[in-house]
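User: Design a sequence. Structure:
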């Protein structure tokens, strides 16, 4: 193995840059030529390779987003798109590809490996919805961003004695909602992994109200419904003045947390070592504090599981 390439794909996540840095620097440390692919799989099909040196990843460890840019490519889902990408990799004499992204990106990487090309995945998404790892790169920063935002909203909630419904990202997973909801002491946390029981939400609000609590925070994961649907239902049943904040894409931005930089650095270096050891079609993960790797196919078979003990903890603490 002499030449390797790295790309970022799908929604960007804080920590992708330190992961790119780790891939490039570990690759060079191991005597490889490293190339970056711009604009994810879309760029791969066009042969958008750029040579990376030590300086090309200088001063990025603390930056959000991805210096390689990212894309969600429909064309790469097709057989023709995949063959085009393989041709470009072969023309550039690349021997291995590292893909930083979510499960959709790994399905793409798997297609290349099925066609004989070595690929390794690094989980990079704020959603934390990937099997085979306890944490994805970007999740910790996103949770911290949400917590910071809700702490600010709480000031207004308390000053105006209002109920606030905060809608957070996470696609079909409730991890961001659960972790941030627990960390801000939300009265209710609404996640796709649990039935949304409006009677329970209202009962908890009224119970708080009775003991003099005049403001409340409810966190809802986008995978359940829109925040304003919850707000409308609350206002109609309780008469409490309720407002909605949709945090949106600010959850994907910002300087990566120390934890995200740490796992990005570990996973990036590990991906290079796995390629050099002859692995392909596997994703790097962090399980119980240990770096592991598992086949894409295996990870795809199992559904990501949220730690429901945190949900019950949050409920018991916000009575
Ligand atoms: O997967 C990351 C994520 O931010 C999800 O939480 C969200 O549902 C989705 O991407 C939004 O995608 P887009 O930026 O393409 O609108």
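Assistant: Done.
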């Amino acid at each position: 193995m002499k030449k390797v390439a790295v790309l970022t794909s799908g929604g960007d996540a804080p920590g992708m840059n330190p992961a790119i840095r780790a891939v490039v620097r570990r690759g060079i440390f191991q005597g490889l030529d490293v190339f970056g692919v711009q604009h994810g799989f879309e760029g791969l099909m066009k042969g958008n390779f750029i040579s990376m040196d030590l300086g090309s990843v200088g001063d990025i460890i603390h930056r959000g987003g991805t210096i390689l840019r990212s894309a969600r490519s429909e064309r790469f889902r097709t057989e023709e798109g995949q063959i085009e990408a393989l041709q470009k990799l072969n023309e550039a004499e690349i021997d291995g590809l590292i893909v930083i992204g979510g499960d959709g990106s790994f399905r793409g990487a798997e297609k290349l490996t099925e066609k004989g090309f070595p690929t390794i995945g690094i989980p990079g998404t704020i959603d934390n919805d990937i099997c085979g790892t306890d944490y994805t790169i970007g999740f910790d920063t996103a949770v911290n961003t949400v917590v910071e935002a809700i702490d600010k909203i709480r000031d207004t909630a308390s000053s105006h004695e209002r109920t606030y419904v905060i809608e957070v990202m996470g696609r079909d997973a409730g991890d961001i909602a659960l972790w941030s909801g627990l960390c801000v002491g939300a009265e209710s946390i609404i996640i796709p992994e649990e039935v949304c029981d409006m009677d329970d939400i209202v009962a908890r609000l009224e119970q708080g109200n009775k003991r003099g609590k005049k403001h409340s925070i409810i966190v809802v994961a986008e995978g359940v419904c829109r925040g304003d649907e919850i707000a409308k239902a609350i206002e109609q049943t309780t008469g409490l003045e309720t407002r909605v904040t949709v945090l949106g894409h600010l959850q994907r931005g910002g300087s990566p947390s120390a934890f995200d930089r740490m796992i990005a650095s570990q996973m990036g270096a590990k991906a290079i070592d796995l390629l050099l050891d002859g692995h392909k079609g596997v994703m790097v993960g962090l399980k119980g504090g240990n770096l592991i790797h598992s086949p894409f196919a295996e990870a795809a078979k199992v559904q990501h599981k949220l730690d429901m003990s945190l949900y019950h903890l949050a409920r018991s603490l916000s009575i």
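The pocket of 6-O-phosphono-beta-D-fructofuranose is lined by residues 11, 102, 125-127, 169-171, 222, 252 (CB under 6 Å). The chain has eleven helices and eleven strands.
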